Here is the input.
Amino acid sequence: MTETKFTSFILAAGHGTRMRSDLAKPLHKIGAKPMLGWVIETAHAAGSNAVCVVTAPHHNDIEAYLQSAYSSVTAVKQKDALGTGHAAQTALSAIGTQNQPVLVLFGDTPLITAETCQRLADEIAQGADVCVLGFETTTPTGYGRLVKDDQGQLSAIIEEADADEAQKAIRLVNAGVMAFSAEMADEHLASLTNDNAQGEYYLTDMVAIAVANEKKVTSVTAQSDEVQGVNSRADLAKVEAALQGRLRDAAMAMGVTLQAPETVFLSSDTIFEKDSIIEPHVVIGQGCTIKQGACIRAFSHLEGAVIGKDTIIGPYARLRPGAVLADNVKIGNFVEIKKAILDDGAKVNHLSYIGDATIGAGANIGAGTITCNYDGYDKFKTQIGKGAFIGSNTALVAPVSVGDGAIIGAGSTITKDVTSDDLALTRAPQKIVPQGGAKFRSRKSKS
Ligand code: UD1
Ligand code: MG
Here is the structure.
C-alpha cells in the first residue's frame, strides 16, 4: 500500500427517513461506535489529512458529536438536500481540495476499509481523474449502474430512476464512493446540473463529464458487504453482523479462542492477549482488556473492565466500568463488579455485588456479599485487606474497611472498621424451641 494523502468529503446530510428515528442516521451505532465515527477513522487510517462532513441544517447532534470526538474534522451544513453532487459542492466550498485527491464517502456506509480508500486514492495519484468504487450484485435495485463502452471503459453511471431496461439489467453498480483529482473537482464539480428524473445534482454525472472532457476514468471493485449502506434498522443489523464477523476473525487471528464466534459480541477497541478463551454468548463492550490465559465463561457481560492473566469470569458475570482484576482472580456466577480493584487471586464466586471497593490479594468474598456503597446521595468506598475472609451474606456498609487476614462471620452487617486478623460478627442469637417444629405441624394439620 502506498501512502497517497487525500482529502475526504463525507456526505451525511440525507434525511434518513426509513430509520424512523429522532437521531441522525450517521449517529446510529455499530460495534458501539456511531457509523460516522467509523468512516472518519477509516479515512484517517487510509491517509486522509483533511476531512469535511456535510450535515443537514437540523442535525446539530452531528456537529456536537464531531466537536467532542473529532475536533480536527470540519462540519458544513448543506441547506437543502439537493443531491450527492450538491453535497460534494458544499464540502468543496468549505475546505477545497487541499491540492490533493478528493475521496467522497458516505456517512451511512461504515464498513468501507482503509485499503479500499487507499486503492481509490492511488488510482488518482497514478493519473486517473475519476475513480469509481463498484461492486457486483444480483440485486442491483436502487443503485447507480456502471455503464461501459465498447472498449470496456466506464462511460457513465446511470441512476436507477433514469435507467432503461437494458441498463437496469447491469449487475455492476456504484457503491457511492468516488475519487477525483484536485483538477477534476475544481474544474467540473460546479458544472453538475439537476436535469434528471429526480431533479437532483448527481455526483455520479462526474463520470460522463470526465469522458466528455477526455479525462481518465477508472473503477475498482469491492466485496458487497464492505459497501453495504444503511437505510433502515434492518440494514443496520446487517452491517453490525458483518462488523462483528470482522472483529471475531481478528480476535481469533491473534490467538484468542472463541468457542462459538457467532454468539460473541465484541467492540473494536478490545485489547486481547493471546490464549484467552471466550465461551459462548459473551458480550464485550467498549474499553476492555483481556490478558493472556484469561477465560470469560458463558453468558457474561463486560464493559470498561480489565481482566488479568489466567483470571476466570463467569458464567453469568457482569463487569461494569472500572472493574480491574489482577491475575488469577475468580469471579463466579451472578456476580456484579463495578469500579473495584481486585488483587491477585481474590475470589468472588457467587451472587455478590462489589462496587467502589478494593479487594486485597487472596481475599475470599462469600456468597451473597454486598458492598452497600450508596446512600441515595453519595457513593462510599469499601476496603478489604489481603487474605481477608468475608462470610456469606455479609453487608459491608461503606465507608468501611476490613484489615488483612480479618474474618467476618456469615450474615453480618459490618458498619465499623475491622482491624487486621480480628473476627467480626453481627448476628442475632439463635433461639431453639424444643420440638417446636413437630408441635407446629400437628396444630396445623388439626385445624
Ligand atoms: C447514491 C448514488 C448511487 C449509488 C448509491 C450507493 C448518486 C446520485 N447516486 O444513490 O449511484 O449506487 O448511492 O448507495 O450519487 N446526501 C447528502 N446530501 C444530499 C443527498 C445525499 O449529504 O443532498 C448523502 C446521504 O446522507 C448519504 C449519501 O449522500 O450518506 C448518499 O445519498 P442517497 O440519497 O442514499 O443516494 P442514493 O440514492 O442511494
Ligand atoms: Mg442510499
